[in-house]
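During the first year of the project, the team set up a workflow for recording each protein of interest as an amino acid sequence followed immediately by a discrete structure-token representation. This format lets reviewers and collaborators read both layers of information side by side without switching files. As required by the reporting guidelines, we include two representative entries from the current panel. The first entry is reproduced here exactly as it appears in our internal archive.
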Amino acid sequence: MPAAPRQKADVSHPCMEHSAMMPAWTLLADVYAGSEAIRQGCSVYLPRHSQEPIEAYQERINLALTYDFVRQTTAELAGRAFSKPPQWSEMKEGSKWKDFLADTDARQRDANNVARGLFNDGLLFGRVWVYIEIINDRPTWTALDPRDVLFIATDTTGKITEARFRREVVKLDGFEEIISEEIVRITLDRVETWTKPGKKWERTANVKNASGIVPLISFAPEPDGAVNCVPPLLDLAELTLTHARRLSELETILRVASFPMLALTTSDGSETSNFVVGPHTLIALEIDGDAKYVEHSGAAIGVLQSSLKDLEERAASFGVRLLKRRRPSVETATAASIAGQEASAPLQGHVIALQDMLRQLIAMTAKLWPAGGEPPTVTLSVDFLPTEGTSQDLIAIRQLGDISRFDMMAELKRRGVLSPLFDNTLNEARLSDEAPFFINARKGHDHDA
């Protein structure tokens, strides 16, 4: 029997690298989204046990809880990396670039907020794209989810020669928002827009690409090709899913084990039924009959609880891996490409990679937007690692009088002991308004009788 003809691919067909990365990206997105997303994908993430009644399974899914390990770790790492905001070069008053950096995505978000968002998504997915578009003689940076960038083709030098990505289009129909999807295909010669009014994708726009470039640039902390990458938090997502499964199992066991079962023994071995058990009910037993409660030993519960605690401890310390210093001789390729900066920890390397990407974004935007004038430069700080000394060492130096209180507080803030929002000057002003504070002071004195 001849094989069925292979269906012809359309504009929505992804490249092989995209297809290979989708399972990891989907898991990361769902774990980051939280419990409801895991419940929606319960057939994959929380499969039904053999012999488990459908009602019990549905109840278990409805009560399933997914901890926010990935979201919390991503936020903490991004917060540490941006504890000092990006530094942009001085720009003249009236500079078009200055106005653009105040609203880079046409959604009232400045360049620093956009950069932090890119870093957050890059840590989560391992790659995030930015599409540069000139609209009404003004550039716009649009961040693209890697799941929506379907196809990337490059030449032997790594230059992108073709790209296809999905995006949503929102139109108003009276008081209702109508959301549709379109695919943008960009080559070195043309920019096409495809829509799907029916069952097939149709090209609805086709204009010349006057720039001769494909204006997409990606940030990837650990790239492994034009699309492939190694998401830094993928192991944490797997750990979170394992934790969700075991927590679900523990909840199921607790619901069963929390209720002891009444077992009745009869003298003739006949089955007992139709008994109502309760505080106001009397059970009449025949001669030589017996009744007792059968309870769970709790051994399995203890094992699961111990396992959950271990997973939670591992998750809580996961972000430390990206802050751990390497040997001094080790330098990332990205760090080597930027003079004067060296990454001694993975997170520092990721920040340097983001800085490199932002500089590429500015350079490509300047090519597309010559009317903007002299483009700015940007520098990101990598001075955010915990210091080797402890806070107690710093306090001891303060007690010796070798460092001022103001400088000690500033150093504690730099080390992460104090919040990045801590204002040293404001704190000094508030302290001056307070009554004197005496350590170990006592209101009265003890006297011998």
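The second entry, processed by the same pipeline in the following quarter, appears below.
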Amino acid sequence: KVVGPAYKDIAAKYAGADAAKVDELAKKVKAGGSGVWGPVPMPPNAKVTPEDAKTLVVWILSQK
């Protein structure tokens, strides 16, 4: 929690996410961002493909 939330906390926040939300979160993985989980920004992951970003999001959302 020093630099970001636990995967289980992300999964709990977005429980029941539909396909549109998964796509939105995958875009955030690629672009980076800040403010959702606190002041520490998440750096962009430009080298991650859109398909891999979506796979990562689906996996993170499956954590309990």
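For the second entry, the following points were noted during internal review. The longest helix spans residues 19-31. The mean pLDDT is 93. Both points are flagged for discussion at the upcoming steering committee meeting.
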